[in-house]
Design brief:
This protein is mostly helical. About 65% of the residues lie in helices and about 0% in strands. The protein has 52 helices and four strands. A hairpin with a 5-residue loop joins β1 and β2. The protein is globular, with a radius of gyration of 43 Å. It holds the Pfam family HEAT_SCC3-SA. GO terms for molecular function: chromatin binding.
């Protein structure tokens, strides 16, 4: 390497440039010699060199020859040859290397870049730069608006005049772009050994100003333009230097760039390091483009030389010139490759793993561009491995950048062969990113990359299955990204099956297409594609350990995995596949496939062998039928939604986006046809799949997408009535919670149409009659309060009936039905009549009272030895009773609200009855809460119902306020009355029903906080979260009681709380394939614990907002918010509602005092408050409950008639 003397003596005879002696390190540098003048002497005259002129002529000749064709020379080419020969005769070409002056000047003629080879780079306007403060090269690049190629040309001119000052301008430009106002002068440039010291001094001065923001990361509109201008200038500069030949003749110039800029790229100061890295990467990118052009020029010269040599009459001069041109381009390529290796080792190797993620992203983007631009150097395993290593970067945008870069590389089929080694090495990591990356965007991009790898046949079967399971992913972006991958996999399976059956042509010839296109019940090839689809989904679902978005737990049964709303993971997958599989879009074919009887014999003489094979291969299992029903659900919903919208082509033809009359009529006709067809299919599907709960629920879900107005418009009430009859049949014959939920929602949907309300209400009333008759029959004369007193058969029947009551009460008014005392049919014999009369006086109670009594079955009996199945059934019965009682009070309060708004008096007897039932329900709930321990599901549910029970009466207070405001607005000061009857109110102005609006007692509040603490701790333990230890003495006591309960008693799941370590041991030690199930179950329980916490917490928040639960100090609110930031996003959103309490009027001060009723009033005598101070008081409550249970002895008398009623009971519970 040449020594660098005082004035960058690039052409010193003692330091003549030679590429053979250059080394990366160990440079010998002469001590600087101070010159008389730092700049070029004004009277200096450039030395005229014939070699320069000759080379210029040669370059011009070469440029002309590059444009020549490989055939015979034309007339223009002959003229150019003659001119070139004349110039060569005058000035023969001298191959001697060029030498520059020793005073720091170079006498190179500046030749601007050819327009055909370089695109002009217009500098973007950077708003962050103040034009008044900018100066020098910085101002030319960022504020002048000049073309960056012109700026680079002017810099080369200044370099020819004074090299040191020009290089100093480049260094100062980088410093200024880093936000530093310090500068270097030509003395620093002339002494490269002082580079590190000078930069250290500048860095210390810069850091003393405590500057944290610099232009590359500054927030504003000009940031992107600033970075583009900086990179663009260096690219223009290097390419211009290369085109002038300065890059190859003056090697010390690029060395000085490397010394100063690469040293800054390793600075500890982030602005210096980032700015210098961006500049260095731009220089390497420009060198790649120079190398690419050099390779192309060399290849072109060699092709032209070979073509010329093959001619009959060889032009030896042309051949020699082309070979010389190729040789020169080859030498230039070696020089460029050398500089690329030096810059890569000095900058990229250290910065691609920089602590600043922005720098890492810039490096990866640049490397991707280098590989694409100059594959001769960078497309190899040595450089590709850096992309593979960054796949494990902790910064998500860095991983995303690598994936995007790999997508570009793999889409180039010419590079796929060279990427096989890389794929084998990093395929596992790529698959892992697609399945497990924390960022959904990265996962989606990785799936798209793997889709390209699948087409290139670079994936293993296990990898294909791992990616295919992402069709069940909870992120819509990931499901959308994996669709093409999944569909391609299905097509491969389908084509393989077709080949096994004899090929596509054989099947097309053998199968007879139905004459009517609407005949969807005949076997067709679309069924085979659907069979492949459901088989693959079934396989992935059975092996998939990931859970859907939401987990719902059905009390008394196993875990039920239900996606958001009531959509299953299969339905979500089908929604993603809808636009990519025509077979799913034709939902009529799906329905015909499901309704086809695969058990029928195919050997009837009319079916060909191919048809028999098709039917055999299309036969569905029960599990696959359920999956196909879910797909049918999704297809119908999307299809009917699309039927209500015009197609894209039709929409383009509309005027201003409006549909024409013909288009509207066509859309309406399509909707009506689809609704009619679906309405006829639902009964057929229920007839075939009604006995299977999962299948029945999917079919019932189809009713909710029907537009039932069509039946009214077409006068098809009989069709609707038949459909509702089928729904009622499913409701009465199933005890599955999901089936009853779907049937209830279907009836609710039908009741939403006013024109059809009469028909629907009649069907709902029939359900009420059948359900209440069954309830009366099953509960008549039986002990409903004692846990374990019913046989298993009766217990199942009562549980299912109460569940039906809860579902019906959620969609229709149940007050009159639940308050009506059942009547007993008149017996034929007089003796039975007399005995029945005695029994009725003791046992006939309103159904609502029986439901309240059933809640107490949730109180565990320590002395009773119940089987686990029986205990689970009792818990399920208590849970269903809780869900059935609350709607009664809600409907009752709704009636009272209407009466209050209309100023109609509420009967005293009605108020007293509701008050008594309120107290009975509260007593039962407190018993359940006090008897159960820890985060028990029934305990948490009882606490939630208790909060709702108090809150529901707050509606009456708002109704009264609205009524009074309306009266005041009308200017009426008289007492509210209706039809001449004054509304009942005492001397204090309070009405009788206002006694029911009361705050929650302090002792009940203590129970609620205990339940909440248990739920909070249970979720924290399962989720591995640490709770806040700061609490007052009462909260500590509640927390301690909750912890003791949890540790001493099993949870409601009948599973002791395991530590995280024990759970991990289970996963690791299990070798029978159950590790995934154990992990899935652990996740289920964690989600259920979070669900319970948010449910009870949300209900308590509502009670606080209503002024019912908190005290004047805000104890409950503070307790709820204590771990607001420690229990996840869901709990944080629940606590967000408490902000209303802080801003609301009087909310922070607790509930307003409610006036108590007069003691002498009989209608308020039953209203009482249960106070539990200790265990003895709880025993009293239990004793009172026991006395209530034994008020009538009709149960013993009814036991004597058990034989007479056995046939009636069996007929009720037989379903």
């Amino acid at each position: 390497m040449p020594a660098r003397n005082s004035s960058m003596e690039l052409s010193s005879p003692e330091a003549e440039p030679s590429t053979a002696t250059r080394r990366k390190s160990g440079r010998v540098v002469k001590k600087p010699e101070l010159l008389a003048a730092a700049s070029s002497p004004s009277g200096s005259v450039k030395r005229k060199r014939d070699g320069d002129d000759d080379e210029d002529m040669d370059d011009a000749s070469d440029e002309v020859s590059d444009e020549e064709s490989e055939g015979e020379p034309d007339e223009e080419e002959l003229r150019e040859k003659k001119r070139a020969k004349k110039k060569k005769a005058i000035a023969p070409r001298k191959p001697a290397p060029k030498k520059s002056k020793t005073n720091g000047e170079v006498s190179l003629a500046i030749r601007p870049a050819a327009p055909k080879q370089k695109k002009p780079r217009k500098a973007r306007t950077v708003k962050m730069v103040d034009p008044g403060e900018a100066e020098g090269l910085y101002a030319e690049v960022f504020t002048s608006g000049d073309d960056l190629n012109d700026v680079a040309a002017r810099w080369i001119s200044s370099f020819n005049e004074n090299e040191s000052l020009a290089v100093a301008e480049i260094v100062n430009l980088v410093l200024k772009c880093a936000g530093c106002n310090s500068k270097v002068d030509f003395h620093d440039i002339e002494d490269p050994d002082s580079c590190a010291t000078k930069l250290t001094d500048i860095q210390e001065e810069y850091q003393a100003n405590d500057i944290t923001e610099y232009p590359l990361v500054a927030k504003g509109k000009g940031t992107a333009a600033f970075k583009a201008n900086l990179s663009g200038f260096f690219r223009s500069l290097i390419e211009s230097i290369a085109q002038t030949g300065l890059l190859f003749d003056n090697i010390v110039l690029i060395e000085n760039f490397e010394v100063w800029i690469s040293t800054m790229s390793s600075a500890s100061n982030r602005p210096f390091r980032h700015t210098a890295t961006v500049s260095s990467l731009a220089i390497i990118t420009a060198l790649c483009h120079v190398g690419k052009e050099t390779v192309e020029s060399e290849a072109k010269a060699r092709r032209q030389s070979e073509s010329e040599a093959k001619k009959a009459k060889v032009n030896k001069g042309r051949v020699q010139g082309l070979e010389a041109r190729a040789q020169e381009m080859g030498q230039r390529k070696e020089t460029v490759d050398h500089w690329l290796r030096d810059w890569f080792d000095a900058v990229f190797i250290h910065r691609y793993r920089d602590v600043d993620p922005k720098i890492r992203v810039d490096c990866i983007e640049a490397l991707s561009e280098w590989i694409t631009t100059y594959p001769e150097v960078f497309f190899d395993g040595h450089h590709l491995r850096y992309l593979g290593w960054v796949l494990s970067d902790t910064h998500a945008p860095s991983r995303a950048t690598v994936i995007k870069s790999l997508q570009k590389l793999f889409k180039d089929k010419d590079k796929q062969v060279g990427l096989r080694t890389f794929t084998e090495r990093f395929r596992t990591r790529i698959v892992e990113m697609a399945t497990s990356d924390a960022e959904a965007t990265v996962r989606a991009s990785t799936v798209e990359l793997l889709d390209t790898l699948l087409e290139a046949e670079m994936l293993e079967p296990d990898d294909i299955d791992s990616i295919g399971r992402l069709i069940f992913d909870s992120e819509p972006r990931v499901r959308k990204a994996v669709v093409d991958f999944f569909v391609e996999n299905i097509n491969v399976v389908y084509e393989g099956t077709i080949d096994e059956m004899g090929g596509q042509e054989t099947l097309d010839d053998a199968l007879v297409r139905p004459e009517d296109d609407d005949d969807y019940d005949q076997p067709r090839l679309e069924w085979l594609k659907l069979k492949c689809l459901v088989s693959q989904l079934d396989l992935y679902d059975s092996e998939e350990g990931e859970l859907p978005n939401q987990i719902e737990h059905i009390a008394g049964s196993h875990f039920a995995l239900i996606a958001a709303g009531i959509e299953s993971r299969f339905s979500l997958a089908a929604q993603s596949l809808y636009d990519h599989m025509p077979e799913i879009q034709q939902w009529e074919i799906l329905a015909g496939y499901l309704l086809f009887d695969h058990s029928q014999t195919t050997e009837n003489g009319s079916t060909t062998d191919a048809g028999a094979m098709l039917q055999q291969n299309c036969k569905l299992s029960e599990r696959e039928e359920i999956i196909l029903l879910e797909i049918l659900n999704a297809a119908v919903k999307i299809s009917l939604a699309n039927a209500g919208e015009p197609s894209t082509d039709a929409h383009k033809k509309t005027v201003k986006g409006r549909l024409t009359k013909a288009q509207r009529e066509e859309l309406i006709a399509n909707q009506e046809q689809a609704v009619r067809h679906l309405a006829l299919l639902i009964p057929r599907l229920l007839k075939k799949f009604g006995a299977i709960p999962d299948a029945a629920s999917s079919v019932l879900n189809l009713e909710r997408v029907l537009n039932l107005d069509v039946f009214q418009e077409l006068r098809q009430d009989a069709t609707l009535a038949a459909l509702l009859d089928d729904i009622n049949k499913q409701f009465m014959t199933h005890g599955n919670e999901r089936v009853l939920l779907e049937a209830s929602e279907a009836l609710r949907h039908a009741r939403g149409y006013e024109e059809l309300r009469e028909i629907t209400d009649g069907k709902v009333q029939l359900l009420w009659d059948d359900t209440m008759n069954a309830f009366a029959t099953l509960t008549k004369g039986r002990d409903l309060s004692t846990r374990g007193s019913l046989s298993d058969n009766i217990l199942t029947g009562v549980t299912n009936t109460v569940l039906r009551i809860a579902n019906l009460a959620s969609i229709s008014d149940c007050v009159e039905i639940l308050e009506a005392v059942p009547t007993t049919p008149k017996p034929k014999s007089k003796s039975k009549a007399a005995k029945a009369a005695t029994t009725d006086t003791n046992t006939s109670v309103a159904p609502i009272s029986a439901l309240i009594t059933l809640i107490t079955r949730g109180v565990p009996q320590p002395d009773a030895d119940l089987a686990p199945e029986t205990s689970a059934g009792e818990d399920a019965l208590a849970s269903h009773a809780l869900r059935a009682v609350l709607p009664y009070f809600m409907w009752k309060i709704s009636h009272w609200k209407t009466a209050i708004l209309s100023s109609t008096p509420i009967p005293d007897a009605d108020v007293a009855t509701v008050a008594a039932r309120f107290d009975d329900t509260k007593d039962a709930l407190i018993q359940v809460m006090h008897s159960r321990k820890g985060a028990d599901e029934i305990r948490i549910e009882a606490a939630g119902v208790l909060c709702d029970l108090y809150c529901v009466f707050m509606v009456l207070r708002d109704a009264k306020r609205s009524r009074d405001d309306r009266k005041k607005a009308k200017g009426k000061g008289k007492a509210p009355q209706e039809n001449g009857t004054a509304v009942d109110a005492d001397e204090s102005g309070l009405e009788d029903w206002e006694a029911l609006i009361q705050p929650i007692d302090p002792d009940v509040r203590k129970h609620l906080l205990s339940v909440f603490a248990a739920a909070e701790l249970a979720f924290a333990k399962r989720a591995g979260k640490k709770l806040d230890g700061k609490a007052n003495e009462k909260d500590k006591e509640l927390q301690r009681d909750a912890e003791t309960d949890i540790d001493a008693e099993p949870l409601s799941d009948d599973e002791p709380m395991d530590s995280d370590d024990e759970a991990e041991e289970v996963v690791v030690v299990d070798v029978d394939g159950n590790s995934a199930n154990a992990a899935a179950e652990k996740t289920q329980r964690t989600l259920l614990a979070e669900k319970r916490l948010c449910e009870i917490g949300g209900k308590m928040v509502m009670a606080v907002l209503g002024g019912l639960l908190d005290d004047s100090r805000g104890t409950v609110r503070k307790r709820l918010e204590r771990n607001r930031t420690k229990l996840g996003a869901s709990w944080r959103e629940v606590c967000a509602f408490l902000e209303r309490a802080k801003k609301g009027k009087g909310a922070a001060g607790g509930a307003k005092p409610v006036a108590k009723a007069k003691p002498a009033s009989p209608k308020k005598a039953k209203s009482k408050t249960i106070v539990i101070d200790d265990d003895s008081s709880e025993d009293e409550v239990m004793a009172d409950s026991g006395d209530d249970d034994g008020e009538g002895e009709g149960g013993e008398d009814a036991a004597e008639e058990e034989g007479e009623r056995e046939a009636e009971v069996e007929s009720v519970i037989g379903d």
